[in-house]
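Morning F.,

Quick status update on the modeling queue. The single chain you submitted on Monday has been processed. Sequence for confirmation:
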Amino acid sequence: MKALVALLFGVSLFLVLYPLVLYPGLIFFLSRLFPRPVRKARPDPLPFVTVVIPAHNEERVVRDKIENTLSLDYPPDRLEILLASDGSTDRTAEIARETAHPAFHFLDFPVRRGKLAVLGDAVSRARGELLVLTDTSAMLAPDALLRAVENFSDPEVGCVAGRYRIAREVTPALDGRGESERGYFEFEIFQRICESRFHSTLGAHGAFYMVRRALFPLVPPGTINDDFVIPMLILARGFRTVYEEKAVAFEVHLATVKSEFRRRVRISQGNFQQILLLLPALGFRDLRALFVFVSHKVLRAFQPLALFGILLGSALLPGPLFRTLFLLQLFFYATGLLALFLPRPGRLLSLPLYFLTGNAAILLGLLRQLRQGSRPARLQWEKS
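Structure tokens below.
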């Protein structure tokens, strides 16, 4: 019995430490030892680009988004902008129709069908050889398109993921929770840069990414994390997704526990959904891609179960070391629960709060996916 508990503890500890501690260092060294540089160049003439902006009830930001996209440093005669409204019931359509510009086109779909359906219709009407997919709430840096386009001079590149940044100067009340979120994204960015240098990064952020229109995949209905699945299906076809840290998208971050938790539960459900979809799609044809996917996404999806194994093992195994470890875990989780009830927890309490709510979201996402099974996800419009 003791041997089984020790094995459970050891395996659980490895499953927690590997994706969070060991893998980031490993992928850093692999990116230095076995790099795959992107052959960048700025083509002349520049390729025709279509910017696709799906929207649902975005009256607060849609005018700013249109103005931001029209002001980008890209030749207007090489740019097409498609704003696609998915059954908006606010003033989104009214505001969009106020824009009169030859590059701008408004697609008003009066019946709400979901983001994937709107994306599919918009892409079928796009004229650009390259597609930009971007959230309505994300503001692009002036040179974002030019920076992303340079990567497509390499024929192996099928998708370019832009850098997501929280716009601190326009984000209200970025408290400790928001700082934890920002810190998490910086940690993710480090890994994505290393993965991109080694072979290919995983997915993209919905705020901004660019793909070859000819490679835009058929995404199964009900897919939740489309901004992850679309680049991964392109990767499964033998093309790279590279991370371009100079192609920046800024977004306001609303640091409330309730909204963050709801979003993270949905993303977590999408993570389990995409594991079932993408493992067979990747197969063993590209071992680098499979290694990155399993290390970065698959193992992390089961982190709460491994944490429970560590807690259980340290509670059952004898000795002062395990007893101390068990008490430290209880203290850490209790601190996170305490922070949950504080309106503005400081940085010290925000880390256990962020960790605790993140793992709770993973568990709820797993339960949702198990309950839903193979049925398509419920129609929703959630920011990624």
